TrEMBL record:
Protein name, UniProt field: NTE family protein rssA
PANTHER family: NEUROPATHY TARGET ESTERASE/SWISS CHEESE D.MELANOGASTER, NTE FAMILY PROTEIN RSSA
Signal sequence extent: none
Active site: S76, D190
UniProt key word Coiled coil: no
Lineage: Bacteria, Pseudomonadati, Pseudomonadota, Alphaproteobacteria, Hyphomicrobiales
Keywords: Hydrolase, Lipid degradation, Lipid metabolism
Chain ranges for the short sequence motif GXSXG as given in the UniProt record: 74-78
Amino acid sequence: MMWDGIALFSGAPVRRSADGVLGAAGVPPLREPERPRRAKVGLALGGGAARGWSHIGAIEVLQEAGIPIDVVAGCSIGAAVGACHAAGKLGELRDFALTLTKRRVMGLLDFHISGSGLIAGERLRRLLERDLGSTRIEDLSLTFAAVATELGTGHEIWLTRGGLVEAVRASYALPGIFDPVKIAGRWLMDGALVNPVPVTAARALGADVVLCVNLNGDMRVRGTVIQSHGADGAEAVMEAAAEAVGAPAEEARRWPLIGGRRAKPKPRPEAGAPSGIASVMVDAFNITQDRISRSRLAGDPPDVMINPKLAQMGLFEFHRAEECIELGRQATRRMLPEIHEMIAAAVTPA
């Protein structure tokens, strides 16, 4: 009802403002209820060489479940998979992984002895450029960071702008295996040295809920402290050596001394003995990564951790992509109820 230019609304005089909005005299106009803001979901993808193919399966299940990914922070192989997802090339990466055989994997490694690593990495760089081209991180449809480590200082570097391919190469430059990568005046190498599962980066880049895929969460070997350990006496060492080659203990005492030590037949290889420099380097890096991962995740745990069962997957078994992807899918499906619950609980007013 209208009376002298005033509209009657709910029994109270309401004046119509110049822009046509109704409001009670002296009372601000009524507003529509605020819509809740969807929680931003971040994904932290850990390092772990060939085990990283499980990241593909994890992302696929999240997409199938309708869970949007707004932020991706990746380290090493996690940076490579995360970059392909952010650039809309995850399908191409999956197809490539499934074509790998032991022979083809070796063909992608350009060994050299003149650099600071065993592998120059140029063949892998060309492979990345084929699909990612000149894509820049800041042009991606979601927030992305590749984690690397600065050579010399040990700084943790978050690569959040610039060329996507170079950022990925720096993040997976395993020391002694790949040459370090120079970006903006800094020599960078594998980010797993400082932050193997970059939950902190995903959270700092704006994620309300952080999911992580930990490639070492199923490892059966867990280092501890041996508080009392020492070398046996010389006689005990010789007796052990004699036992290893099946000789009587008294025979070991008759072996001739060479260079202050008794020459003895070469013992049979022990179970678990080092099998070469590459094996030693990889095992040492794996131990370091596991220790750092546990420490970092204890200090800043994710909202949901996805742990694919990868204990039987070798670090360089890239030819087992199909199996690895499926393990990633299974682990993520197991965690879907908890993921949905965490996202629902994190919804906030706009």
